[in-house]
Amino acid sequence: MSQPNSSELIVLKHLWSAGPQSAREVHQAVGPGQGWKPSTTRTVIARMEEKGWVERQDMHGMAVFSAVLDRTATLGGLVRHLARQVLDMDGPIPAALFAESPHLSDAELDELDAIINAAEDETKGGKS
């Protein structure tokens, strides 16, 4: 599965913390800081819906969107990609590096560590 780009990640982070939101609510929260027009926010959300990363529900006649992608698994994939493909790191990746992130609880940090290093173990197992 491909990883979210920076625009998609901004929307995901908002939905993970805020819960289901209309496109207008998402735009009001993240659009101005990104210099986005409302149509840009709607386009990002529509593309994410096509990818299956957000789902649309109709609530009281209004379309609201919620994140389908798991926060910890998604962030784990991004960390793994950064460490392996960008920084050419080898060996275990310490999830504690992200302990100060407001986006992860202690339990999610433990889960992130397991995700990052389990994927590494699977990769090494496949190379043997």
UniProtKB/TrEMBL annotation:
One of its GO terms (biological process) is negative regulation of DNA-templated transcription. Keywords: DNA-binding, Transcription, Transcription regulation. InterPro entries: BlaI_family (IPR005650), WH-like_DNA-bd_sf (IPR036388), WH_DNA-bd_sf (IPR036390). One of its GO terms (molecular function) is DNA binding. Belongs to the BlaI transcriptional regulatory family. This is CopY family transcriptional regulator.
